[in-house]
Design a protein that fits this description.
Layout: E1 2-5, H1 14-27, E2 35-37, H2 48-57, E3 63-67, H3 91-99, H4 101-108, E4 115-130, E5 147-149, H5 154-162, E6 166-168, E7 175-179, E8 191-193, E9 199-208, H6 209-213, H7 217-237, H8 241-250, E10 254-256, H9 260-278, H10 281-295, E11 332-338, H11 340-344, H12 350-357, E12 359-366, E13 369-376, E14 381-391, E15 394-399, E16 411-419, E17 422-431, H13 435-443, E18 448-450, H14 454-457, E19 471-477, H15 479-484, H16 489-492, E20 497-504, E21 507-514, E22 518-527, E23 530-535, E24 545-553, E25 556-565, H17 569-577, E26 582-584
Parallel strand pairs: 1-2, 1-3, 5-6, 5-7, 8-10
Antiparallel strand pairs: 3-9, 4-7, 4-8, 4-9, 11-12, 11-18, 12-13, 13-14, 14-15, 15-16, 16-17, 19-20, 19-26, 20-21, 21-22, 22-23, 23-24, 24-25
Helix pairs in contact: 1-7, 3-4, 5-9
């Protein structure tokens, strides 16, 4: 059976998706298996959680995991009591709702829309977050006129609209509705209002009714027992708000607390949304049951206030004090190494900087076309391609759709100047991408020009057709050879050593003898005017793809790296192109 998961891997829901899969396999002795489809909603027009609900209710997939907030986007209001504003405001109550009779009633109610509810568990409490420095959201009036990012949900969007904000789910916003465990997904270093709790986020595990009925009695029991075990584990391991707040503050975020009067003002402002939910008789009964449970449940501690960890900020470039160049930036390959500290100093959360941004950036500019390669500090990699042109007093980079392009639809309006210390950029405007993070990597340091090998710069070489000649080819490279090709001195030692390629009728091996030796296997074939090397599963270069050109001259075999996927571009280009490769007899 296939399980459509709204989230991608690496977020709080993942351990419990895996727990459910393991429980099903164990309880069925391997006769029933679950295949997760991560980020399943991305393949639908509606997207994310709504897309997952559609996939399962329409029978495209058998099982689903999506948050309770999204169901009303499909006119399924059975779960709206969970989002009644300011009703469930602490973790102990959220856990009691999920684990008790109210949770069972909520899940059973899904049968009216052809769905079998299997499990329900809380993930976090949802707060206002301000993205505007020194302007926390402490009253309803603070929301007026702001763009507020929120996951699509009728109740959430009505609440944002009632507070005077414009709800949206884009990349440029001044406010957001999120949880302290999820706040790192927002741009910059937001400030949460810790004691303003709109409602909790619950995960809902469910099955398509027809698919569930087609199972045997034993299989249905297996799914229900596995779901119950998963819910029990999720509730038992649920991080409390105080713990989430401490982690948020340690990561560089900040929390403010509203006064009692300000909290009461939020509750009054949200009352029309609450009243609309209670117009449904079932929701009114559930709200009353939750109120009764709230009165009998000792509230768990909430978030404490904390100040943002202040780093030494570097002043931003100012259009008034800096003189920016006209025209397009100079052709060439430009590189900058950005540390976690560089990003934190510019307002990026520490965990986000480490996981998604810190590393070596290499920007190739050539006559209106650009290619950006990123090699992360933790081994991540990415690439983006764009065209660029002058628009008035800025240069506009428009990222386009191409295989592996991770910045598709992004538009960057930049200014530039070339000083003695390197190429400087200033981000004037960014569309369809996080402003704070993009601005940080562009502006943190001057970009240094990389001296390229002749093959990469003259454009006059004639490259051979077909496959490179069979045989064993060898090159020995020093740190200076690697540095001369534009690799940072701090990285060069890892790449200095002896490289050996063996080509034989479409199968290749490459061996490196150096600080960290490796052996890789690949197949290779002609693709248009290049030779594509696709590395084998299980080798040290697994999932890497290299597009190369070659020619054989008196001094040896010359290789030219055109593109690379899932591996650092500059370093691989350096070892391939630094010297001609000599054949070993």
């Amino acid at each position: 059976m296939r399980l459509a998961v709204a989230d991608d891997q690496g977020v709080p829901s993942e351990p419990y998706v895996l727990e459910f899969i393991e429980q099903v396999e164990t309880l069925s002795d391997g006769s029933l298996t679950i295949e997760p489809v991560w980020d399943a909603g991305s393949e639908t027009f509606a997207g994310f959680e709504t897309g997952v609900i559609q996939l399962v209710t329409r029978g495209k997939l058998e099982l689903g995991l999506a948050a309770s907030r999204a169901w009303d986007t499909e006119a399924i209001t059975n779960l709206q009591a969970l989002q009644a504003p300011f009703l469930i405001t602490n973790d102990a109550l959220a856990e009691a709702v999920a684990a008790g009779d109210i949770g069972k009633r909520l899940l059973n109610g899904l049968s009216s829309v052809g769905v079998v509810g299997l499990a329900l568990w809380p993930e976090d409490l949802r707060h206002p977050f301000s993205l505007v420095p020194d302007k926390p959201l402490l009253s309803p009036e603070d929301f007026v006129g702001l763009d507020a990012r929120a996951t699509p949900s009728d109740v959430t969007y009505r609440l944002m609209d009632t507070l005077g904000a414009a709800p949206m789910f884009g990349d440029v916003y001044q406010a957001a509705e999120s949880g302290l465990r999820q706040g790192a997904s927002l741009t910059g270093t937001p400030t949460a209002t810790g004691n303003v709790i709109f409602f909790p986020k619950f995960q809902v595990l469910f099955a398509n009714g027809d698919a569930f009925e087609r199972l045997s009695d034993a299989q249905r029991t297996t799914l229900r027992d596995a779901a119950a075990a998963t819910q029990e584990k999720a509730v038992a391991e649920h991080p409390r708000e105080a713990e989430a707040a401490a982690a948020w503050c340690a990561d560089g975020g900040s929390i403010v607390l509203a006064s009692d009067e300000q909290v009461a003002a939020f509750e009054r402002a949200a009352q029309p949304v609450f009243d609309q939910i209670e117009q449904d008789p079932l929701n009114a009964e559930l709200v009353a049951a939750i109120r009764a449970l709230k009165a009998a449940t000792e509230p768990s501690p909430g978030a404490e206030a904390c100040g943002q960890e202040v780093a030494q900020r570097i002043p931003e470039s100012s259009a008034e004090t800096d003189i920016w160049a006209e025209g397009v930036p100079p052709n060439g390959v430009w590189q900058a190494e950005m540390t976690v500290k560089d990003f934190v100093e510019r307002g990026v959360m520490r965990s986000v900087a480490a996981a998604e941004w810190a590393g070596v950036y290499t920007l190739t500019l050539q006559d209106g076309k650009s290619l950006m390669h990123w090699q992360g500090e933790q081994g991540q990699s990415g690439k983006c391609q764009a065209s660029y042109e002058v628009i008035e007093d800025i240069v506009r980079f428009t990222y386009y759709s191409v295989g592996g392009n991770e910045c598709e639809n992004e538009i960057d309006d930049l200014q530039w100047r070339l000083d003695d210390d390197g190429l400087h950029f200033r981000a004037v405007d960014i569309k369809n991408a996080p402003l704070t993070e993009i601005k940080a990597y562009l502006e943190a340091k001057p970009w240094q020009k990389v001296e390229q090998s002749p093959e990469a710069t003259t454009g006059t070489e004639v490259w051979s057709e077909g496959l490179p000649p069979n045989g064993v080819w060898h090159v020995e490279l020093t740190q200076e050879n690697i540095i001369d090709q534009g690799v940072l001195r701090s990285k060069a030692a890892e790449w200095a050593g002896t490289f050996t390629w063996t080509f034989q009728d479409g199968k290749a091996t490459t061996r490196f003898e150096g600080i960290e030796p490796y052996d890789c296997e690949a197949t290779y074939a002609v693709v248009e005017d290049m030779v594509r090397f696709t590395y084998s599963t299980g080798s040290d270069c697994e999932d890497e793809i290299d597009d190369m050109k070659w020619r054989l001259e008196d001094d040896g075999l010359h290789l030219h790296l055109v593109d690379i996927t899932n591996a650092p571009f500059v370093e691989n280009k350096a070892y391939l192109e630094a010297k001609p490769w000599r054949k070993i007899d």
